[in-house]
Amino acid sequence: MPVLLTKTGSVADVTLDSPGKLNAISVAMWRELASLFGDIARDANIRCVIVRGAGSNFAAGADISEFASVRHDQPSGRQFHLQIIGPAIEAIRTVPQPVVAAIEGFCIGGGLEIAVACDLRIATADAKLGAPVGKVGFPFALPEMLPLVALVGPGVASDLLLAGRVLTGIEAQACGLVQRAVPRDDHARVVSEIVSAIVAGSPVAARQNKAQIRSLLDGGLAYTQAQLDASFGFLDSADYKEGIAAFLAKRPPRFTGK
After folding, report:
1. Residue 198 near residue 257, CB atoms below 8 Å
2. Which residues make Cβ contacts (< 8 Å) with residue 197, sequence separation at least 6?
3. CA nearest 78: which of 33, 24, 25, 144?
4. pLDDT at residue 108 in the model
5. 255 found inside a domain
6. Which pLDDT belongs to residue 89?
7. Do 145 and 214 reside in the same domain of the chain?
8. Residue 254 domain-assigned (yes or no)
9. Cβ contacts of 165 within 8 Å, gap of 6 or more
């Protein structure tokens, strides 16, 4: 399979595995991503997801070699973006567990879209992130542009899409495209430490924090009374009671995600 899923304890590792093409994402890979993240969303035992690329690159975009057959006119292009790429990005963005993008090497075009759909992006300092799609004659599809603009704003999005700028990991951190940019030799350790911190915390709190961040973004930083009421549901959770009890007893908490 061009997308690999492995599970270690409560961590799911999703690997884009087409290194001969710098992990360029084929139609089959987009569909597999949507399917795998659907499965992950239903697995209560998973507390965190890592997305990475096989070899030394994250993903160098969608597989343009397929475009002549899958995106060659209005009907096929709409289907490609709305029924193939769209569901994959939405599955990553809305999976209830925190998702960490471990970015090395090229993270371009469709690869950048996948990274933006994740909650945390940890890049190597020398990674290359961008979306110079104008050089090959097309813009970002409107639904795929929205998460990028929401993350970095119109100025940085314009630099990436209009000027075709490709940022290093350090530059991407400076403009908020990634949260961390670290030396290549430290990358695996830093990703592991972040994932360990997520797993050690309450799954109830992590899932609710993620859901509320997404809800506020999708709602224009506004919320309804029903959303406000639901946000206090954690007070009835076992994780909340365990967290307080463990703090008072000066012992590590034993969270169950309930």
Report:
1. no
2. none
3. 144
4. 97
5. no
6. 97
7. no
8. no
9. 130, 132, 159
User: Reduced to 3 states, what is the DSSP secondary structure of residue 252?
Assistant: coil
Distances (CA, A) of 104 to 18, 60, 78, 80: 14, 11, 31, 27
**Amino acid 111: pLDDT:** 97
Buried b (16+ CB within 10 A) or exposed e, 74-91: eeeeeebbeebbbbbbeb
Range of the domain at 24: 3-198
Q: What are the helix and strand counts (H, E) for the chain?
A: 11, 10
Q: Are residue 125 and residue 212 in the same domain, yes or no? A: no
pLDDT for the residue numbered 62: 85
> How far is Cα 10 from Cα 206, in angstroms, rounded to an integer?
14
- Same-domain check for residues 237 and 113: no
Bridge partner residues of 101 (DSSP): 51, 121
193 and 206 belong to one structural domain: no
Q: Rounded CA gap, 244 and 258, in Å?
A: 14
State residue 20's pLDDT score: 86
Determine the angle formed by the axes of helices 203-218 and 238-249, rounding to 10 degrees: 120
- Same domain assignment for residues 185 and 228: no
pLDDT score at 1:
65
pLDDT of the residue at 70: 85
91-129: per-residue pLDDT in tens?
A: 999 999 999 999 999 999 999 999 999 999 999 999 999
List of the chain residues with pLDDT < 70: 1
CA distances from 14 to 52, 136, 198, 202, 256 (A): 6, 28, 17, 22, 23
> Is residue 126 domain-resident?
yes
Say which CATH number the domain at 10 has.
3.90.226.10
Residue 207 and residue 165 share a domain = no
Domain count, the chain: 2
**Does 101 map to a domain?**
yes
Q: How many residues does the chain have?
A: 258
pLDDT at 177: 98
